[in-house]
Design a protein that fits this description.
The chain has 265 residues and is mostly helical. The protein has a single domain, classed as MetI-like (MetI-like fold). It contains 10 helices and no strands. The two termini are 18 Å apart.
């Protein structure tokens, strides 16, 4: 790829990002106008900018949001990692030992049908208001989609690849680690692209209902104190983090699949 091609690709991505930002900001303003939301409650992009960057208290506001952000991102990333590791481990176990899968998979689906907001008080009551409870709550939203997609991907390995492994005398473990798991990686990353933003939602829910820390509790406080500038600013910050997590998973996917498989389109 020539320097001109790189510049063209970069310019196109920057233009696309700017157009997306313009559409989001325009939709935001239009939403407030169409639904005739009171200026006391409905804050626009200019209000959030002033709260974070140009207002007299913007420095203190940024410092508060930075502290809350560190807590929430830590909670979300730990939950995402724990949920993914648990899901991949269970998927491999369920695939290798079909009896275990037939026993525990329906139980997992039943648990998945219970709303997370209903499970949170139980989890907090059992494990306490600590990082372990947050990890479980945030990891749950990662666990189930990754588990299902991983099992489907393992079972969907091309039969030709399995036959070739048998022909060369590969063991079941060698076939699993060298063929089936690399083949399943695109499905795992597809699940992670969905689960990464959801892990942030799980962390916010845990902070809201359990720990009294992070952006989740900041949202609750801002609403209770009618600090709508702070409320909208936190919503914007959370949206940025959610988008960033999605993009980071996409970058990780490209790097991993270049090493172990075909890169995503």
């Amino acid at each position: 790829m020539t320097a001109l091609d790189v510049a063209f690709t970069t310019g196109r991505r920057v233009l696309s990002a700017l157009l997306t930002l313009a559409v989001i900001l325009g939709s935001w303003v239009l939403f407030l106008k169409v639904f005739n939301i009171s200026p006391f409650i409905g804050k626009g992009p200019v209000d959030v900018w002033r709260y974070l960057f140009s207002g007299p208290d913007s420095g203190a506001n940024r410092q508060v949001l930075a502290g809350e952000s560190v807590t929430t991102l830590r909670d979300a990333l730990i939950g995402l990692a724990a949920g993914t590791i648990a899901a991949v481990t269970c998927a491999i176990a369920f695939y290798r030992w079909r009896t275990a899968g037939s026993v525990f998979m329906p139980l997992a689906m039943v648990l998945r049908s219970v709303p997370l907001v209903a499970m949170t008080p139980l989890i907090v009551g059992i494990f306490g208001r600590n990082l372990l409870a947050i990890t479980i709550i945030s990891g749950i939203v990662t666990f189930f989609p990754t588990l299902v997609n991983m099992i489907v991907a393992l079972r969907g390995t091309p039969q030709e690849s399995l036959d070739l492994c048998r022909a060369y005398g590969a063991s079941a473990s060698d076939t699993l680690w060298k063929v089936q798991i690399p083949t399943a990686l695109p499905s795992v990353f597809a699940s992670l692209r969905i689960a990464a933003p959801l892990s942030l939602v799980g962390a916010l829910l845990a902070e809201w209902l359990a720990t009294g820390q992070g952006l989740g509790y900041g949202l609750l406080n801002a609403s209770a104190e009618s600090d709508y500038n702070g409320l909208w600013a936190r919503v914007v910050v959370i949206t940025v983090y959610s988008t960033a997590l999605y993009q980071l998973v996409g970058i990780a996917e490209s790097l991993v699949l270049k090493r172990f498989g075909s890169p995503p389109n």
